[in-house]
User: Fold these one by one.
Assistant:
Number 1:
Amino acid sequence: MARMDLERRRIWAAAAVGALLLLAGIAGCGVKGPPVPPQRPPLPAVEALTGRLDGDTVTLNWRHNPDAKGVAGYVVLRAQSDPAQPPCPDCPVVYQRAGTINADKHSRQITFSEPVPAGFRYTYLVRALGAAGDQGPEKASVEIDRTER
């Protein structure tokens, strides 16, 4: 008889533990769903982008806000087009990375220069760059015509 009571207690204890585990699984710790990464503020768009051609060198300037959150630097993108080929209005512009510049916390103006070969039109785009490689929005581009120099 004592052995039967002991066996019943074990069964009841196992059932109670199972019920508790089931309730814990249902209740959980909140809303179920995929993990969400912490939100970062979006990177700002580049302001006041200008460009000029001096000889064979393109120089770009733009404004940098040292107080902008998350800006580690800037990526300069360049597209090159041949004026002898007709433009394709529905084709996407293909940009290549022309360079990367670290953000200077002590400067409000950033400058990028590079020599370019004659005979082409160039379109430059500058985007803010985050520490994780994320890029800010495209706001404005600068076109440089080096077809006649």
Number 2:
Amino acid sequence: MMALLQRVRCARVEVAGQVIGAIDAGLLVLLCAERGDTAAVCDRMLAKILKLRIFSDAAGKMNHSVQDMDGQGRAGGLLLISQFTLAADTSGGNRPGFIGAAPPDEGRRWFDYLVDQARHMHPVVQTGEFGADMQVHLVNDGPVTIPLRMSA
């Protein structure tokens, strides 16, 4: 599983001109399920997303996670969006291949699983729509953008 985390001041996702998910400060997370992913891989990815210390403390150091963004126990938002194009293979030419991405039914299963687990572990979770043509709007904070990859 691959993820691209962006620390944001706010973010929203639209489908057909309608906002379907929005957060204030927190993390926009683009997720890509890969062939061979398992529930254990999803669990490790979610644990890393929730615990990664990329929010600043009073001294400006990255010491807080999205679960405790301000050091006062206040959690930030998570906006989780499926994005199979993170698995793009561009080594063979100018048109990317996506053979490493999980097939759509498997990708949906792991995305839905991770979202469900996130909703049990974090108070503010919003999502995009799996497989939809989405427009994502964000104000990147920093900017801070972190790639993650977990494998079986």
